[in-house]
Each structure stands twice: as C-alpha cells, then as structure tokens.
Specification:
410 residues, alpha/beta, eight-stranded parallel sheet, four-stranded mixed sheet, 13 helices, 33% helix, binds zinc ion
C-alpha cells in the first residue's frame, strides 16, 4: 500500500531516531530512513508519542464553578455542591461543557480518554446520553471510553442500580463505583462486581479518598477481584490513604495490588486540593506515591479528574502538566523517575485501559503527537508543549508555535 504520509526525523521515547510511514490510518513502516513519494513532515528530532492517555476525567461536571458556592474546599462540600447543581443539568448543557473540556484535552495531545459519568435518579441518563454524543462527535480526534458510576451511593440510593444497568444495556464501556459515599460500602462493591460480570465490563472505583490509614476499602476490592478472577480489569482512583502509610505497609499493599492485578490512578490536582483540609498549618500533600507502586509492578496512571468545579477549581486538561505536578509533589528529579511520570500519562495509562493497540508500532492506529522536546524526562521537567498531532493518520490539532519578537538591530 502506498504511504499517505511520512513523518521524518522523529525521536521516540526510547531515544531512536526514525521515520514513520502512515497508510490507511495506520502505522505502516518505521525505519531510519523511509524511501517514499508521499507528503512529509520534518520533525527535526522532536519527541513523538502515540498520544497522551487520560484515564480518569469527569466531562459531565466540568466547567460549573460559577454555579457552585464553595468555601471549605472539602470532599463532602464538593459532593454536596455538585449534587445540588446536577439537578439542573440537561443533556444539552452537559454536551456543551463536555465539548469545551474535550477540545482542551485534544489540543493538549490527548488521544485516548476514560471519562466517568454520574448516573442516579436525579440526573438519570442525561450525562450518559450527552457523553455518548460527544464520543461520536469527537471520534475523529479521540477514543472516548465511558465509565458510568453512582457518585452519591448505590445501596442507599433506590433506583440508581436500575439506571446503571440501563446504561450498561445501552453500551457503557465500563462501570465504576464510589463505595465511600455509600451506607454499605462492601455491598456496593459486590453489586458493582455483579453488574461488571453480567455485562463483561472492566471496573474503575473511586476509592479510599481520605487520609485515615486505619481501614481501607481496598482490602475488599482486592478480595472481590481475586474471588471473581478479574485481575487486569480493575482500577482504583485516588487511594489517598496510601500517602498516609509507612514504607513497610506500602510495600505490602503494592505487592497485593500487583498480585491481584489492580491498577491505580492518582489524581494529583484534586488530591492536593481536597486533602488535609482539617489542618490549619503543615497540611499533608495527600497524594498516593504512584511511582513507588509502579516500581513494584503495579500499573499506574496520573490523570486530571476534574476541571473547574468544586472538586478541582483548576484545569487546562494538560497531562504533561499533571505529570510535572506529580513529580514536584513526589520530589522526583532523576531521569528514570521523570520517565516513569511520562509513562504514567502514556504507556502505563494505556495498559490500565487495556488499550492493546496503543503505541508506535507497525499495524497500530496512526495516533501520533509531537512534543516540543527531545526526550520524555525533559518533556515532564520542562512542561513541553504538544505541537501537533494525528488521529488515525489525519491531522487533528495544531498549536501555534511561540514567536519571540526581538528588537531590530540597526
Ligand atoms: Zn473522579
């Protein structure tokens, strides 16, 4: 098949300099110097990735800060404020706000995304319907995976389970849970596993989102994952409790997670913003040490979570920024540790999503993003800008290059 496009002088994450040939939306050839008569783009040794991978974001409740009245900055306040605002959400409103968020993510170089979507008797399937539309509307730029979940509880919220099941029947990609908001957390975990088995879906829990290490729902999630043989198909997000345990206990938990095949997503911006609010000074960081777990063989990712809402009143959807923020909080500096941060928004994040066709390899979709950097560690350290990208071989975004206007010397 003749090539449609050749990217020349690409630098890959491992350091090789190659040309990449694209045909029919897929990567057709990778070689030091491709001979072809095809349109080409010279990248001058810039870093090329298969795109950034967002494993955990909430498109349905992004951009609502101006509708919420928050002063404490606690998790309880954020859940209550969004629960109140959610009553006025319509599918059109969610679509509009989700679109703004999604377009930001695309221009930050994200090519795959898992979004959580709230389903309950208040918002019903409005969020699910709107995000399904977004998935179709933006398929040319991003693969969007929808995880439906009961943010306000399941066992304590009659009608929520029927709606979750309805969303699964209508094609939700996976199911999530939020046991800490339920009156019976273990029962919620059991129901979520039951629904996941019924529809053969992966699971992604919001879990252990405080700094009290005396108990963890993680124990029950590990137990159920083993019992249902769902290793490799379960992820947990936040687990901020893991920032409050000592080395020995963290090592034991890391081993358990690796053995059970449970992946971990850390959400640095939200966790920093919401944790430790009971401390008037010397507040803890409250961010789980993902790089330590990753070193033990746990699949880990860093993700955005929320954008401009009471959970996180910030956000530009940049995963490079999130990797940099994490490196800063975790006090990482060496090339290997910064590389791990890069992996947590690319390859490791894709592994968490079981995205088997992710990566720069012949036969994979031609999802290619150029970063203004030479290597992954520098990209994280220097917050490298994504310059442009392709989704399945079609140019999907371009960011204008910065121009410096030196005074003219006479
Ligand atoms: Zn979340």
């Amino acid at each position: 098949m003749p090539l449609d496009l050749v990217l020349r002088q690409c630098r890959l994450a491992e350091g090789e300099h190659v040309d990449i040939g694209v045909a029919g939306g897929r990567i057709a050839e990778i070689a030091p110097a491709i001979v072809a008569d095809a349109p080409e783009e010279k990248l001058d040794g810039r870093l090329v990735t298969a795109g950034l991978v967002e494993t955990h974001i909430h498109l349905d409740k992004a951009h609502i800060l101006e509708r919420c009245d928050c002063g404490q900055g606690t998790l309880a306040e954020a859940i209550a404020a969004v629960a109140a605002a959610k009553r006025a959400f319509t599918a059109a409103d969610i679509h509009l706000r989700g679109r703004r968020t999604l377009e930001k993510a695309i221009t930050q170089g994200t090519t795959r995304m898992r979004t959580h979507v709230e389903v309950d008797p208040r918002v019903r399937l409005n969020g699910f319907d709107a995000v399904r539309r977004l998935k179709r509307d933006y398929a040319w730029a991003i693969d969007l995976e929808i995880c439906v979940f009961p943010q306000e509880g399941l066992i304590n919220d009659p009608g929520a389970e029927e709606l979750l099941v309805e969303a699964c029947e209508q094609g939700a990609d996976l199911i999530g849970g939020c046991p800490y908001t339920d009156t019976d957390p273990s029962a919620q975990i059991a129901r979520i596993f039951a629904i996941a088995r019924r529809f053969d879906l992966d699971i992604d829990f919001h879990l252990d989102f405080d700094l009290d290490p005396s108990w963890m729902h993680l124990d029950e999630v590990c137990r159920q994952t083993d019992a249902h043989r769902r290793g490799g198909r379960v992820a947990v997000g936040h687990v901020t409790k893991l920032s409050a345990v000592d080395d020995a206990r963290l090592t034991a938990i890391g081993r358990r997670l690796a053995d059970s095949g449970i992946a971990v997503t850390v959400l640095p911006s939200t966790d920093l913003f919401l944790m430790g609010r009971d401390q008037a000074h010397h507040a803890p960081r409250g961010v789980a040490p993902a790089h330590r777990l990753m070193a033990q063989g746990v699949t880990c990712s860093l993700a955005t979570n929320n954008v401009l809402n009471p959970f996180t009143p910030f956000g530009d959807c940049s995963l490079i920024r999130m990797a940099n923020l994490y490196a800063n909080i975790a006090q990482l500096a060496g090339a290997a540790d910064l590389r791990a941060c890069f992996d947590m928004v690319t390859t490791s994040a894709a592994r968490l999503m079981n995205a088997a066709d992710y990566g720069i390899a012949v036969g994979h979709p031609a999802d290619l993003v150029v970063l203004d950097s030479r290597d992954p560690a520098s990209a994280v350290a220097e917050l490298a800008s994504p310059l442009f990208g392709w989704k399945r071989g079609r140019r999907s975004f371009t960011r204008a290059a910065t121009v410096l206007h030196h005074p003219t010397v006479a």
